[in-house]
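re the bet — no i am not wrong, look at it urself. input seq straight from the record:
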Amino acid sequence: MKKKSVIREWVEAIVIAVVLALIIRAFVVQAFKIPSGSMEKTLLVGDHILVNKFIYGTKIPFTSTKILSFKKPQKGDIIVFVFPEDRKKDFIKRVVGVEGDRVEIIDKKVYINGSPNYCPFAVNDDETIIPGGIQPRDNYGPVVVPRDSLFVMGDNRDHSYDSRYWGFVKLEEVKGNAFIIYWSWNGLESSLRWKRIGSLIH
């Protein structure tokens, strides 16, 4: 039996590694970088995170069909999804309302189905209350979340462009659930955030 050349073995190993990496990225886990402060203090600019892509179902390439769905996104989950206003971008926000929920915001306080929605991670650092007739940041709704849709908000409530402004996220546009920070760096010299590396995302 003819022995494979060293070059051929290396090429085959590289091809297999690339194929496996593409499969993992498409169906299992994908890495994302946080570019803005809309999720502070939960996620900081420069955090690099991993997103579980199969927990909500894996989308068959070039289709909107999902398979192997273990569950639907739940209130409190942090999800990555296709931004409705620009499909070339991915956004990350926290799920506040699911299908059938009645969402209303009164003077920055969020109400779901008439009850206050307490989120320990939410931050409001601007004391100004903006009337709903001017913009929906502090006073919004009520609205009912449509079928197969989600209402999402950033944890940095006063500085987040989210469902209050552009509407709902379709379930089919959800890419996955953010679950861990694997790297964190704020872009300056000697600014590695060691304490954040390996932190689970809640």
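see?? Helices lie at 6-27, 163-166. told u. also The mean pLDDT is 88. so pay up
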